[in-house]
Write a structure and sequence with these properties.
single chain, mainly alpha, Double Clp-N motif, ATP binding, protease, CLPT1/2
Length: 199
Amino acid sequence: MFERFAKAARYAVVMAQEEARTLRAPHIDVEHLLLGLAAGRDDGIRKVLADRGITAATIRESLSRKRSAEPLGEQDAAALRSIGIDLDAVRESLEATFGADALDRAAAPEKPRGRFGFGGGSGTSGMNTGHIPFTKSAKKVLELSLREAIARGDNRIEAAHILLGILRAPTPRTVTLLGGEQGVEALRSAVHELLDRAA
């Protein structure tokens, strides 16, 4: 399918992988595809997003804040509370001892080294340097981008088609990043207008 992707669309997918890696995400999800588009080479898509306050910087900030604010889910926190561990108290204690940004500065554990002390360590401070898989939701968005291109009679998948795929099957987090349901609908109209002008 990737042979049908235009250069800017391919770049957006590559950027999504790089952004997911930078954010230390275990998977490339729909929000990373959105971030790849916002940081991508398609000026029209970047402008359509920026006109609605959606930039690579705002998406990164939101994803970083979400990651650092909720390392465990609410069910995990409730389970720990039931055995006497209060995550808020642990966080306050760590910050009192090591400083306000102690958890943000915490380094990921090093990968174990091989038998003779070699291998295993990539020198990237625990950063995933290998292949990061796409989630089912992200794969669905890429498939939908092909469908959007076909439905419009376009012979290539452009960055705008990827955004239409995101708008057709957004995750709850992506809906929030896009300004809610109204933001999704307004953005869909703007992307179709952009493609119509380019045709």
